[in-house]
Write a structure and sequence with these properties.
Length: about 70
Protein backbone atom coordinates (compact mmCIF):
# COMPACT_ATOMS: atom_id res chain seq x y z
CA UNK A 1 0.00 0.00 0.00
CA UNK A 2 1.35 3.40 -0.95
CA UNK A 3 0.33 6.53 0.88
CA UNK A 4 0.33 9.64 -1.23
CA UNK A 5 0.32 12.99 0.46
CA UNK A 6 -1.27 16.07 -0.94
CA UNK A 7 -1.03 19.39 0.81
CA UNK A 8 -3.80 21.82 1.46
CA UNK A 9 -3.97 25.13 -0.36
CA UNK A 10 -2.06 26.63 2.58
CA UNK A 11 0.83 24.23 1.99
CA UNK A 12 0.16 22.31 5.22
CA UNK A 13 -0.19 18.55 5.08
CA UNK A 14 -3.67 17.10 5.52
CA UNK A 15 -4.36 15.55 8.94
CA UNK A 16 -3.90 11.81 9.39
CA UNK A 17 -6.74 9.59 10.62
CA UNK A 18 -6.80 6.10 12.17
CA UNK A 19 -9.66 4.00 10.79
CA UNK A 20 -10.96 0.76 12.34
CA UNK A 21 -14.02 -1.43 11.86
CA UNK A 22 -16.19 -2.24 14.86
CA UNK A 23 -18.54 -5.24 14.84
CA UNK A 24 -21.97 -3.83 15.72
CA UNK A 25 -23.03 -7.18 17.19
CA UNK A 26 -20.18 -7.44 19.71
CA UNK A 27 -18.75 -3.92 19.93
CA UNK A 28 -15.27 -5.31 19.28
CA UNK A 29 -12.80 -4.12 16.66
CA UNK A 30 -12.08 -6.34 13.67
CA UNK A 31 -8.86 -8.32 14.21
CA UNK A 32 -6.42 -10.00 11.87
CA UNK A 33 -4.04 -12.53 13.45
CA UNK A 34 -5.04 -11.24 16.89
CA UNK A 35 -4.29 -7.58 16.19
CA UNK A 36 -6.82 -4.82 15.59
CA UNK A 37 -6.96 -3.91 11.90
CA UNK A 38 -6.14 -0.20 11.65
CA UNK A 39 -5.66 1.86 8.51
CA UNK A 40 -3.94 5.24 8.52
CA UNK A 41 -5.10 7.69 5.90
CA UNK A 42 -5.33 11.35 4.97
CA UNK A 43 -8.62 10.56 3.18
CA UNK A 44 -10.84 8.79 5.75
CA UNK A 45 -13.87 8.55 3.43
CA UNK A 46 -11.84 6.57 0.89
CA UNK A 47 -10.32 4.34 3.58
CA UNK A 48 -13.76 3.59 5.05
CA UNK A 49 -15.13 2.75 1.59
CA UNK A 50 -12.24 0.33 1.01
CA UNK A 51 -12.64 -1.32 4.42
CA UNK A 52 -16.38 -1.80 3.92
CA UNK A 53 -16.06 -3.13 0.37
CA UNK A 54 -17.56 -6.62 0.25
CA UNK A 55 -18.78 -6.44 3.87
CA UNK A 56 -22.32 -6.26 5.20
CA UNK A 57 -22.61 -2.64 6.34
CA UNK A 58 -25.33 -3.60 8.82
CA UNK A 59 -22.70 -5.51 10.81
CA UNK A 60 -19.77 -3.09 10.64
CA UNK A 61 -19.38 0.44 12.01
CA UNK A 62 -16.30 2.41 10.93
CA UNK A 63 -14.43 4.26 13.68
CA UNK A 64 -12.48 7.28 12.45
CA UNK A 65 -10.18 9.10 14.85
CA UNK A 66 -7.94 12.03 13.96
CA UNK A 67 -4.37 11.58 15.13
CA UNK A 68 -2.62 14.36 16.95
CA UNK A 69 0.32 15.58 14.92
CA UNK A 70 3.09 17.74 16.22
CA UNK A 71 3.77 20.93 14.28
CA UNK A 72 7.43 21.79 13.95
Amino acid sequence: MTIQTTGHATGAAAPIYAIQLVDRRTGRTHRVNGRALTLFSRDPALAVAELLEGRDRRHWQPRVEPLQTRIR
